[in-house]
Amino acid sequence: MTPVDTLLQKIADQIINPIIGLMFAVAILVFLYGMVEFVAGAGNEDKRTQGKRHIIWGIIGLFIMVSVFGLMQVLCNFFYNGGCY
Fold first, then answer.
1. What is the pLDDT of residues 42-67, one digit of tens each?
2. CB-CB neighbours of 76 under 10 Å
């Protein structure tokens, strides 16, 4: 393993992976907040609409994160036979 590979691995382990985890957590929290808002505001149409928006944006965020993670895995397996992680 060259020094550049070691540096890139450390950057991925120490910076990129925690950011990805944080983004997953934020998307899940937005989704759950939307669920709570939707259920708690069952009698108020405005609260339900706002809850639906949060649910949709949470799902979109999760979809984007999973798609990017999958694309990164495909690219890593293509360029580095053993994978990046």
1. 899 999 999 999 999 999 999 998 99
2. 15
| Enclosing domain of residue 73 | 3-79
Report which of 32, 39, 23 is spatially closest to residue 55, judged by C-alpha positions.
32
Name the domain count of the chain.
1
**How many Cβ atoms are within 10 Å of 83's Cβ, its own excluded?**
10
Name 83's Cβ contacts closer than 8 Å, sequence gap at least 6: 73, 76, 77
Does residue 84 fall inside a structural domain? no
Q: What is the CA radius of gyration of the chain?
A: 18
Tokens of 51: 């809850």
Phi, psi angles (nearest 5°) of residue 78: -75, -45
Q: Which residues lie below 8 Å from residue 26, measured CB to CB, with a gap of 6+?
A: 61
